[in-house]
Amino acid sequence: MGIDVLKANSPLHIKTIADIARVVWREHYIPIIGENQVAYMLKMFQSQKAIEKQIVDGYGYYLLYEKVEPIGYFSVKKEKEALFLSKFYILEHKRGKGIGRFALDFIEDLAKQYELKNIRLTVNINNSNTISAYTKMGFKKARPIVIDIGNGFVMDDFEMIFCL
Q1: Residue 87: CB partners within 8 Å, gap ≥ 6?
Q2: CA pair distance 71, 64, nearest whole angstrom
Q3: Pairwise CA distance, residues 44 & 37, whole Å
Q4: Cα–chain center distance at 152
Q5: For a designed S-S bond to 160, which of 46, 94, 119, 139 qualifies (C-beta 3.0 to 4.6 A apart)?
């Protein structure tokens, strides 16, 4: 397929992830949650500073490359019983080409290395295209989750589980 996965371990990698996040989040989430919440969430969760803190807190960030072009990223954290897939984004012009499946295979291998039996994620309840994509990859809806993220905003999500 010609896709490479690189664990983010430098300020340049983190800047690249934050740059991809700004593009993907603005194009994808503004119609779902609005511009103000997207701006807030980018600052709180996907700025360089926020990503650096998450890495210190145990999250692994990985860049997806096609040749030398960064085309997406994902973030995971080992939990007691599952691998939490915190972020999973691919640039729009690269979607639908099997890259998501390729990345999920890599994530499955990570979960198996940790001897975990599940991968879990959360996805906005109104993000129907992404829910459909996760369902096609084998994830099942587990429960709704509503989390207050501050500044008057909430994340209104479904938790989805993938059993290994």
Answers
A1: 21, 46, 61, 73, 74, 75
A2: 6
A3: 10
A4: 23
A5: 139
Per DSSP, helices labelled H in the chain are 11-33, 35-45, 48-56, 99-113, 128-136
pLDDT digits (tens, 9 = 90+) for 60-78: 999 999 999 999 999 999 9
Inter-residue contact 70 to 23 (CB < 8 Å): no
What strands, in cross-sheet order, belong to the sheet with 82-90?
3-7, 60-66, 69-78, 82-90, 118-124, 153-163, 140-150
The answer for residues whose C-beta is within 8 angstroms of residue 139's C-beta and 6 or more apart is 119, 121, 160, 161, 162
Per-residue pLDDT of 22-47, as tens digits, reads 999 999 999 999 999 999 999 999 99
33: burial class by Cβ within 10 Å (0-12, 13-18, 19+)?
A: buried
Tell me the HSE value of 29 on the side-chain side, using a 13 A CA sphere.
Answer: 21
Residue range 91-122, pLDDT digits in tens: 999 999 999 999 999 999 999 999 999 999 99
